[in-house]
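Order emerges. One example.
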Amino acid sequence: MAPEQRLSAIKGAKVLMVGAGGIGCELLKTLALSGFQDIHIIDMDTIEVSNLNRQFLFRQSHVGQSKAKVARDAVLKFKPHISITPYHANVKDPDFNVDFFKQFNVVLNGLDNLDARRHVNRLCLAADVPLVESGTTGFLGQVTVHMKGKTECYECQPKQAPKSYPVCTITSTPSKFVHCIVWAKDLLFAKLFGDKNQENDLNVRSSDAASSSEHAEDVFDLKKDEDIEQYGRRIYDHVFGYNIEVALSNEETWKNRNRPRPIYSRDVLSVKLNQENGTVDKNFVADESDPSSVSAMVSLGLKNPQDIWSLMENSRIFLEALKLFFVKREKEIGNLTFDKDDQLAVEFVTAAANIRAVSFGIPLHSLFEAKGIAGNIVHAVATTNAIIAGLIVIEAIKVLQNDTSNYRMTYCLEHPSRKMLLMPVEPFEPNKSCYVCSETPLLLEVNTNRSKLRDFVEKIVKAKLGMNLPLIMHGSALLYEVGDDLEEDMAANYAANLDKMLSELPSPVTGGTILTVEDLQQELSCNINIKHREEFDEEKEPDGMILSGWTQAPTKEKENNNISSDNGASTSNASQAVTLEIEEDDDIEIVPTGTENVPAGKKRKTSDISNASTSQLSSIADKSSSKKKPEELDDDSDDMVMLDNGNSDISKKKRLQ
């Protein structure tokens, strides 16, 4: 296309950007400077201090304001004559339906989570609008193009599942520091400062409590008139001492494992915290209006977050942080959830994880390292975001020119490969087994006599298929539907169905049943074949149902990420798993496992991908969905998922001709 025609296509295009974070800021700037005249931006987030080091459109004065609106105002200062329409909203809101998407020539994603990416992918398919997807993590990045019927859709290939850990590993047999972090964050912190009704394996009663009365009080409750320092030591002794002794009583568990050692406060701390070595900062006064200014490190005079604390220092931080929560932030107790931007929470979790690590013979980590693990952070690099934003615009221009033969999926590498840092490969045709764009039936193995419709809706339809407003049918019988326009009696009937076993529904679901599941907002429909199965392994199959034929990859073990799937005996009968999800920024979802043998501009071959070295591309377990919930993922971290070298689906993919 001639330069004049290209410029005309750019100026006449109506573009939708989803995400105004790390990639989004660079992308909006690049679009404006490239001549685009009509740009719409959707982003539900507000600006945080941690965004300012790379999201260059924002300043300190913008903290707390809408990212989409501030980004618009910033760009209009140097490009005042273009139209930028911001939406401070969730892209999954009903207003952003298929008709809304149809008005655009191309959609450009700079999102931070799998759930939203899948949602946009489905709306683009339904609206028949091209999608340019992107992601970065540290020095790595990628840009992919998705066109209905011509290239694979975003969901044609596997996505990594969030890393989950069996409760028995977390509570009884941790072998890596990440296990200690999950224990401290998701169990201990939640028990002490979150919902008091939460049940977990920390509810083992101490011998003193058990003998005090027939109905012993919860050991984690602060007793009336109990001194806060005494309470802190009681909690310390219970979780690091008594609970370890309980675990040691199960001899079978430790036949082939190193035995942990109980740790009691009396063995570590011989004097009160505020009398030791004179290191307390007596001049420290917390800002009462800013809970985030409360810090155990500052209170105890510890300054460097990259220092690895001793057992005594960790113990002091643990007790001081617990005390500060009850003294300075008492009103928040009962409603707190872990936030990596909450300094006191990070200090508490770091100290608790390190004390537990000492008990189990696991190497200690600094607060800086522990925060990265607890928040699942891979620090973003502004240069990578800028490179990826430029590549997005290049692909968007090709889309506007309908230059199908030159579409490229481009990967940004950390180190040169064949003297290249950018590796372009041709996209593949749609995967014929993709349930999203090819409508291939799925298979669900489930015990139809024990599983409720609610389990099916929550664990399969929403969690795995990513549907927001599902409708479930068995033949012509409507089993479940949600929506504001439902009549009260119908809504009551569907709600009642949720608590019925599948085989007891008005139209029974048994082996051989075919269910149709639809999401009217996404205009997505798929069929699920039901296969009755009597038994499931509670440890390996905690959901009690297995979905086959969808495109989420099994979790891949990576030793260098301190991730383990070791299973061990538990002191309780808990069978659920604790999930650790990555908090993402502009994250990578699919990256080929090595690209050293793929010449630039050449068609991508299975052998090039599957046989190449994986040394450049590290794998970090995905938050989709996290947990922190997907819509709330932080802009300091990015996530990448890799295709498994042995994935048989890859070998069946066809190159786009």
Q: What stands out?
A: The chain has 19 helices and 18 strands. The two ends are 20 Å apart (CA to CA).
